[in-house]
Design brief:
With about 190 residues, the chain is of the alpha/beta class. The chain has helices at about 15-25, 40-55, 70-75, 100-110, 170-185; strands at about 10, 30-35, 60-65, 85-90, 90-95. The protein has a five-stranded mixed beta sheet with strand order 1-3-2-4-5, with helices on both faces. A hairpin with a 2-residue loop joins strand 4 and strand 5. The longest helix has 16 residues, at about 40-55. The protein starts with 8 loop residues before the first strand and ends in a 7-residue tail after the last helix. Residues about 120-170 and about 180-190 have low confidence and may be disordered.
């Protein structure tokens, strides 16, 4: 048992561990989350990854500390953190550089099996007419990972543009609330 982690979220400790976890089910969608402990955007995105692992229990989520697992990071050409890779077997489904929670959420929604049902007592966001409301597209940012530096992992500079929607969430819990709104209201993502 791994206290505090969703059952489908694994911390990769070695290349052999990585290969074993991926080989268990090649038809399963896998989210690879490359991060480092010293990069603040990674800390925020690790919270988003945990929430996505809970939301999509049939997705294999692999948390990979990029500097400790340099061989794995190099095999996916990771030169900035955070970076996210979506795979199904040996097929690349998506690559999301930077701390772009919205793009990561949308990519996972596009490729993953249906999300877990809403928890009892959770609130869905539905308009007064009974139809789902669409999320706002304004200010969502592009999250290109402006901190790339050839040959080395780097962290964002103070002048890097934010990838969060405007206004910028002040905490990971506010970001998760914003993502929850998208899960409940995004195209094809209504609560049953």
């Amino acid at each position: 048992m791994r206290p505090g982690l969703p059952l489908n979220l694994y911390e990769v400790k070695s290349p052999d561990d990585f290969r074993t976890l991926l080989a268990e089910d090649l038809a399963r969608v896998a989210l690879l989350s490359f991060w480092t402990p010293w990069a603040a955007p990674c800390e925020q995105m690790n919270e988003v990854v945990r929430a996505l692992a809970l939301k999509y229990p049939r997705v294999l989520v692999l948390s990979i500390e990029a500097e400790a697992q340099e061989d794995i990071a190099a095999s996916f050409d990771v030169d900035a953190v955070p970076t996210f890779i979506l795979l199904r077997g040996n097929s690349l489904l998506a690559r999301i550089p930077g701390a772009d929670a919205l793009t990561l959420t949308r990519a996972l929604a596009a490729h993953a099996p249906a999300p877990a049902p809403a928890a009892p007592g959770s609130v869905s966001r539905v308009s007064s007419s009974g139809s789902e409301t669409a999320p706002s597209e304004s200010g969502s940012g592009s999250g290109s990972g402006a901190w790339s530096s050839p040959g080395a992992l780097s962290s964002p500079s103070a002048s890097s543009a934010s990838t969060w929607s405007s206004p910028e969430p002040s905490s990971p819990s506010e970001l998760l609330d914003e993502l929850d709104a998208l899960w409940c209201t995004g195209p094809g993502m209504g609560v049953p």
